[in-house]
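At this stage, I wrote out one protein's amino acid sequence and its backbone structure tokens, and that material follows here:
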Amino acid sequence: MSLTEQREGIEAGRLDMLVDGAFAFTLTLLVIGGNVVPRGTAELLQTLGNIPAFAVCFLLIMFFWHGHVRWRHCCMQADVTGRWLSLLLVFFALIFVYPLHMMFASLFNTFSGGVLPSDFKLVSLRDVRTLFVVYGIAFTCMAGTLVLLFGHAARRARREGRSPLDAQRERLVWTVPTVLGLGSALLAVLMPASSPPLSWGLPGMLYSLMFLIGPLTARFRRRHARA
């Protein structure tokens, strides 16, 4: 291994530690009890009511973190583009954490009839619109950054004479949440205020199309297996 490759490997390791630490920090912001220790069983039960929202938030944060882990498998060495895009992902993660928690805490609070607690309350349809738009933009920014990272990994693989297929497949995976997040935000913006209350769940239901990742990646594998 040359001195340059060794230096790039050390740089890549330090960058990954920064990204890992930033994602770990976002999880501490979501911890169910915050920095308050329950002083009785009533407060304990209320704190435990935050578990469902925390579980979903935890899974989504890990979804994005694992995307960066998979990117590193496609792009082992450090470079300027990868470094700045990774830092951009961290930046968006620290923004995403609050609308993420607000979205699912208010969702579980509504569906449970107020049994599960939420400090964030949706008072009007305008609040619902705002939350969907902010969440959708944050979701799009994070997924879109991973699309750019895998696109960069594919280009670098071609330059180095390696197969870009793994990076291209992962770029396709992250294109789906990018499009869905943007579509959800646009739908929330364009929905008339006179729409029936039930229809305001449509921007959120759009994320159920994430299942398309499976069929699309399977089609990608079949096409390139034939090639």
User: Anything to note?
Assistant: Residues 46 and 107 are 16 Å apart (CA to CA). The chain has a mean pLDDT of 87.
